Amino acid sequence: MTAHDPSAGPPPDEPRAQPRKAALAAWIGSALEYYDFFIYGSAAALIFPKVFFDESDPANATLLSLATFGVAYAARPVGALFLGHVGDRLGRKKIMVFTLMLMGISTFLIGCLPTRDQIGGAAPVLLVLLRILQGVSAAGEQASANSMSLEHAPRNRRGYFTSFTINGTQAGQLIATLAFIPVAALPEEQLLSWGWRIPFWLSVAVAVTGYVIRRTLEETPVFTRQAATEGVAKMPLAVLLRDHWADVLRVVAAAVIATVSTIFTVWALSYATSDAVGMSRTGMLWVGALANVVALFTIPLWARLSDRVGRRPVFLVGAVGSAVAMPLYLWAISTGSYPLTLILGVLVFGVVYSAANGIWPAFYAEMFPTRVRLSGMAIGTQTGFAIAGFAVAFASQIAGPDGDDWAGVALFAALLCVPPVVAALSARETAQVPTEQLGERHAEVPAKAGASVKA
Fold this sequence. Notes:
By secondary structure, the protein is mostly helical. The chain has helices at residues 19-46, 48-51, 58-90, 92-110, 116-119, 122-152, 158-184, 188-195, 197-201, 204-214, 221-228, 236-243, 245-255, 259-272, 281-309, 311-335, 338-365, 373-398, 406-415, 418-426, and strands at residues 444-446, 452-454. Helices cover 74% and strands 1% of the residues.
């Protein structure tokens, strides 16, 4: 009997991988979960300064509201420690179901909160507590969905299948934006009294839909074999920090690229609709919506390209390109020209940023072996994302008391693209490494001629 080639997938007598089902579950779950997560961003920019904070000082109210957006990102590393440990001990599926339920419930409750006028200072406190629960949920969502998709995918298509997770995230952001467009068009009194609550209440469907979709998923063959042969790590975090600390730091630095998303989605929206520029809420929401529509198509294309040419070059295109393109987008907003803002918004977020955004699920996950993959991804990404989340509040400070120093914010956004570039340049190329050998320092990459070379 000939030995089974691990790069070819599971042996015939083992359960076959379900790459399409896993990718679909990741896409739908991420779309539903990040719909919840991103409606908060729109509300933080447009609604919450007037509903939960002191309107007598609009600039400070906006700063505090945007800071609550970042609170969830601060909670994410803490959630990653716990959920990463559980996911590497008990499996990816359990985390995927839990995170979706937690996000749906906490978001629904935000829509039920009394305002500052009704209960005073307790209102923003309750808002922050529920935002923290959103952050804990998000901490485990992408890492578990990415691990599930990658470990089910064929070796030569891991980039493509894992991109469905981030594609679902973009879809969720798109749905959140579309949900806010009719709400933002309401008269001011109706908008601030009950209109803003509707998108949050709709999230009750998240818990039900997420449970139905994800409970039928099978655990990944790679994790199942790991548990049955070598066993799972009793303390995944200890193994991770002992043997893979450099890759954790690399993912932290690379994940700072998410700053492009948070500044685009939240700060730029707040700036464009401020008195300094005066663009309409609805018009700017359409910029984000159309940019996300384009991203839905470009993300899988960039991911497929990374399966052919490697993760590093595609990621670098996105990181370097974003450093150049993001300042151009903020400049376009400063001119007050809606057509120019729309064109550059779609180019920056829909095309350029998608190069890095579409392939990071595979790029980061491939740095770690199966037994610590979820922990490594969760802790690394969520720490980097925490920086990106609070970048919105820093951008608001940089913009000054009048909120109109777009050039300072543009420089800030460009500088935060440097750590991802350095991380990508220092990373190993893993696109062709067999799934079972990912995370090993001397993994063998099958050559085109059939021989093996050391990675």
